[in-house]
Design goal:
five-stranded mixed sheet; alpha/beta
């Protein structure tokens, strides 16, 4: 997550949408007073800053005040904080005066990426079918919606046209001349031949449609063509 006061923008980080790669680029141009949260694992050249309150005493005071007034118990910014949380910390009026944006991805593809990321890091031990039908899937709609029903950020870029849409966001910020050159962070977990259409069956696809119903409605995402055509759907970690 990044808040740039110099360029007056807020980047809300979603999962499995090249968010870390975008953070690395934006963090370098956001300004010294920007709020830039850490990434895990750390990336060389990415400098996290200003994401914690300055002292334990101040944190305690703000924690008590905000919990009493606004019902939150976390006075610091963190990596995947929602737009609602950012407005709570920064102040709604100030946050609303900044350009807010994030990126989203076709949920069938996003879930495949989430599975290989989780298994590659040892966070999930099971088949892809187990993951789809029984896990907390990476729906991020509530990160960029304030009411749970509508999109609340100013711009949602598409992962499928990542560099073009990031260019559009930078243009809106006023950084038309800044080059868009993204590193490939956390992108080495998914095998190149792990095709979404070969991994899903109808039951699995139906769960995607249920969990990601708001994203599908908002952005018109569709299930992969030729669903179920290819290798067996019980792919295990590391299978290709």
């Amino acid at each position: 997550m990044i808040i740039s006061h110099q360029h007056r923008f807020i980047f809300v980080k979603t999962r499995k949408t090249a968010g870390t790669s975008i953070e690395v680029l934006l963090g370098a141009i956001a300004g010294d007073d920007a709020v830039v949260t850490p990434v895990d694992p750390p990336v060389k050249g990415h400098v996290a800053r200003n994401y914690k309150l300055p002292s334990r005493a101040t944190r305690a005071l703000v924690w008590r005040a905000r919990r009493r007034i606004r019902g939150t118990n976390n006075p610091a910014y963190f990596n995947h904080i929602s737009l609602r949380g950012i407005r709570t910390q920064l102040g709604a009026r100030r946050a609303d005066s900044y350009f807010t944006f994030c990126f989203e991805r076709n949920p069938w593809e996003k879930t495949v990426s989430g599975f290989f990321f989780a298994t590659g890091r040892g966070e999930f031990d099971g088949t892809f079918r187990d993951y789809v039908l029984g896990s907390d899937l990476p729906s991020d709609f509530d990160k960029y919606s304030l009411d749970g029903e509508t999109v609340s950020v100013d711009f949602v870029g598409r992962y499928e046209q990542l560099e073009d849409d990031l260019r559009l966001a930078l243009d809106r910020i006023g950084l038309q001349q800044h080059p868009v050159s993204l590193t490939r962070e956390k992108g080495n977990f998914r095998p190149a031949d792990a095709r979404a259409e070969a991994l899903y069956d109808e039951e699995m696809s139906a769960r995607i449609e249920a969990v990601f119903a708001r994203e599908i409605r908002a952005f018109g995402y569709t299930r992969p063509a030729n669903l179920g055509v290819g290798p067996a759907t019980d792919a295990a970690p590391g299978s290709g």
